[in-house]
Amino acid sequence: MDTRQPPAQSLLRHLPESTVGAAREPAPVHLWNPELSGELDMHIARDGTWYHEGEPITRLALAQLFSGILRLEEDGRYYLVTPVEKWAIRVDDVPFVIVRLEVEGRGREQELRFFTSLEHEVVAGNEHPIRVQIDERTGEPSPYLLLRDNLEALLHRNVFYQLAELAEEHQWQGRTRTGVWSRGIFFPIDGDSALD
């Protein structure tokens, strides 16, 4: 087997059977600490499309399975991890994209339920905060939602427009900010959250 570019199937062979059966549930990658196996010719584009050897992965279940063994480490790199293998992959921005928003309730009582292109479902709140980062060059906002651990999803432009329609002003950390509520928590969306 070519150790520089093994087939992606080798990763799947080393997954516990219980993990393979639940393609959308993340594996306990925080418990696995194998040595680095190398670099895999796989990357995730900014639009959330997964590519293997330059070709898009078109089977949703396969992309879901790979997403369940994804880990972002302190070195800022993303890895696909099994109990015995750890392969570095490229990620253009963040690994997931939010493509749909459902709103339940109104005002401070509302819940913002987000769905990724891989059918992950998350409600914004204390464990799943929304943050906005402003591109210094273009001034364009990039809104993100924390999905799990330290893995984030980029909100698609249309979803961000929906958020903007729900936005209201609120005194937040001593300033009037524009933002949205979910599960009783206010999330500013009018500037660079990372600077607050």
From TrEMBL:
InterPro entries hit by this protein: DUF1285 (IPR010707), DUF1285_beta_roll_sf (IPR023361), DUF1285_C (IPR048342), DUF1285_N (IPR048341)
Coiled-coil stretches: none
Domain DUF1285: start-end pairs: 27-94, 95-189
Name used for this protein in its record: DUF1285 domain-containing protein
The species this protein was found in: Halopseudomonas pertucinogena
Species lineage: Bacteria, Pseudomonadati, Pseudomonadota, Gammaproteobacteria, Pseudomonadales
